[in-house]
Design brief:
two-stranded antiparallel ribbon, four-stranded antiparallel beta sheet, Alpha-Beta Plaits, 2 helices, 8 strands, alpha+beta, 105 residues, 39% strand
Length: 105
């Protein structure tokens, strides 16, 4: 199947509807019927403001978070419409991919 890899980048302390944005994105994908999503906690990174974000032993609030999903064109459109409707501004990468399951006949 052809589609896109969507990866959203945020921080652990960023919230939407009283929920960490990374978790909100995972739940939104599930509600939209997207087949799978992965939330990855990173060790360190920096964004457009060039501010370094990192996970510290005592404070994980600034920890970088990635949310990645493989979607078809319709699912990508639904996800972006949902983000716009919710008023969420988040950096993303959208890459054309081929995806599927091994062992299928």
């Amino acid at each position: 199947m052809n589609g896109y890899q969507l990866t959203f980048f945020t921080q652990q302390d960023r919230k939407h509807d009283h929920m960490p944005l990374g978790e909100w994105l995972v739940q939104a994908a599930q509600k939209l019927g997207i087949r799978g999503t992965t939330l990855i906690a990173a060790t360190e990174g920096f964004g457009h403001e060039r501010k370094l974000h990192s996970a510290h032993f005592f404070d994980l609030a600034d920890q970088p978070i990635e949310v990645t999903m493989a979607v078809n064109e319709q699912e990508a459109a639904c996800m972006f419409a949902h983000l716009n409707q919710a008023g969420i501004n988040v950096f993303y990468v959208k890459i054309p991919i081929e995806f599927g399951m091994t062992g299928e006949t």
